[in-house]
Amino acid sequence: MALTPSDASRLTREVCAFAPIVPVLVIDDVDAARPLAEALVAGGLPALEVTLRTPAALPAIRTMAEVAGGYVGAGTLVTPKDVRAAKEAGATFGVSPGATDELLAACEKEDLPLLPGAATASEAMRLLSRGYDMLKFFPAEASGGAPALNALAAPLPQITFCPTGGISPGNATAYLRLPNVLCAGGSWVAPKNLVAAKDWSGIEALARAASELGKTQ
C-alpha cells in the first residue's frame, strides 16, 4: 500500500521535531560521510539532509544510514529517478525544492516520506489540498524571510514549515520563534573548511550550539 500524504507529513514532522536545525549537506568526499554524520549526531542534530548535488551524495547516504542515532534524508529530489535512487541508498525521508504531481506520486509509491517545497500561498494550498501539511519554505530568505513566513501563519494555520535557504545563526531564531515553524534547514553546521580539515570536534561544537537554538517567547 502506497504511503498517503497525511502519513508522509506525519513522518516528516516527527523527523523535523528531533532538533531545531536540520543540517543541509553537500558532500564531495564519501570518506568524510561517516565521521561527519557521527559529529552532527553527537552534537544533537540527528536528522541529516544530504543533497543530491554531487556524485558522492548517494554513496554518502548509504554510509551515513549506518550511523547509530541518525536519520538520513535525501535533498534536492526533483524526478522519480531521484526518489528511487534515494530510497535504494537508504534515505529515510526526502526533501524537494518544490513539488510536482509526478514527484509526489513517486515518493508515495516508494514509501518515502517527503518534505515538499513551497514558496507561495498558492503552492502551499495546493500541497495542503493533496494532504501535505508539513512543508519546506524555500528559498526562505529570497522569498521574504521570516516576515513572509509569519504572514502565512494566520490564513494557513494548519501548515507547518521548515524554512531553508539563507538560514544562519544570525537569523535562525527569528524563524524558530514563529508559530508555524518546527525547525529550519542550515548548512553552516558543516562548513567546507572544517570538513576538509577533518575537524569533527569543531563540527560537533557547531551542531551542539545549533541544537540549543529554540523558540523564544
TrEMBL record:
PANTHER family: 2-DEHYDRO-3-DEOXY-6-PHOSPHOGALACTONATE ALDOLASE-RELATED (PTHR30246:SF1), 2-KETO-3-DEOXY-6-PHOSPHOGLUCONATE ALDOLASE (PTHR30246). SUPFAM superfamilies: Aldolase (SSF51569). InterPro entries: Aldlse_KDPG_KHG, Aldolase_TIM, KDPG/KHG_AS_1, KDPG/KHG_AS_2. Keywords: Carbohydrate metabolism, Lyase, Schiff base. It is an enzyme of class 4 (lyase). Its EC number is 4.1.2.14. Homotrimer. Belongs to the KHG/KDPG aldolase family. Pathway: Carbohydrate acid metabolism; 2-dehydro-3-deoxy-D-gluconate degradation; D-glyceraldehyde 3-phosphate and pyruvate from 2-dehydro-3-deoxy-D-gluconate: step 2/2. It catalyses: 2-dehydro-3-deoxy-6-phospho-D-gluconate = D-glyceraldehyde 3-phosphate + pyruvate. One of its GO terms (molecular function) is 2-dehydro-3-deoxy-phosphogluconate aldolase activity. NCBIfam families: eda, PRK05718.1. The gene is eda. It holds the Pfam family Aldolase. This is 2-dehydro-3-deoxy-phosphogluconate aldolase. It comes from the Bacteria.
